[in-house]
Amino acid sequence: MASHRRAKQPSRARVAVLTAAAATVVALSAQSAWADPQPSVNDVKAQIDNLNTQQEQASQQFDGAQEKSDQLRQQASQLQDEVARAQDQVTQLEQGLATVAGEQYMSDGIDPSVQLMLNSDPSGYLSQAASLDQATTTETDALKSLQSEERTLNQEKAEASATLAELDATTTTLNSAKSQVQTKLQQAQSLLNSLSASQRAALQAAEQQDEGDVASRGAARADLGNLPPASGYAGAAVAAALSRLGDSYVWGHTGPTTFDCSGLMQWAYAQAGVSLPRTSQEQGTIGTEVPSLADAQPGDLVIYGSDMHHVGMYIGNGNVVHAPHTGDVVRVMQASVIGPIATIRRV
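The structure corresponding to this sequence follows.
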């Protein structure tokens, strides 16, 4: 006769564990069901616009640090050349004095005045020689020259050292700004990558609507047939900037085929024979201030943002030509839709 065994029941501890696990799964499922919905296209656009602004701020910081670094590197090179020349002059003077001493030693012994000249303290020599009336005019002049050259050498060494230290600090700023730009670009790209094809199309449409449909994103076209005439170097700068329509924005670039915002302004005015500073912040301080957009003339620089992180060139009819941001191209837009205007400058 077969025996019937009662099925083994799970322990209370095991039941408790399973119950807790089940409760966790349910809780996570509920949390997932009630999670925040995916951000809307408008939310993503606002985030990307903010990242583009931050990227351009860092880009202008990079431009300024790059310009300063180039200047300091050139200055340091010149100072090092001057130090080398001064050192050579000091060495020649010392060798000349040593030769005089050697000749006197080989004849009748070193003259007391020359012994004083070979003293490690040239100023001590001059004071002693004056009191002892032992220095000839030639010897005195030689020591004074040596003393002067040593002062020059020490001063140039100090200047070179300070310049190199400043260059190191500027390089740190440069690398930091570069890292910030790259981080903001990666964040913006990640946001774009998170969108579906339809969301990307909606985002592009939203951007075009915000810009007043002045230009399509890819073609950078606008009606340029009725622009007011511009002459002189301002007219030449406007023509140069408009010749780059459709060229890509690349941060840190100053042309001739890729530009950031201030790089385009600098390049365009350079074609007119006018030198502009590198950054939008510096460009926002040059020339004379124009009271309002209604008073602007072709060639005026329109600076945007309280920190003056962006710049475009006024071309007339309320339009500016500018290089907007990474992923975009040089284009014409209504000046008023780009952002708050900080200042307008007439070069």
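The first helix runs from residue 12 to 33.
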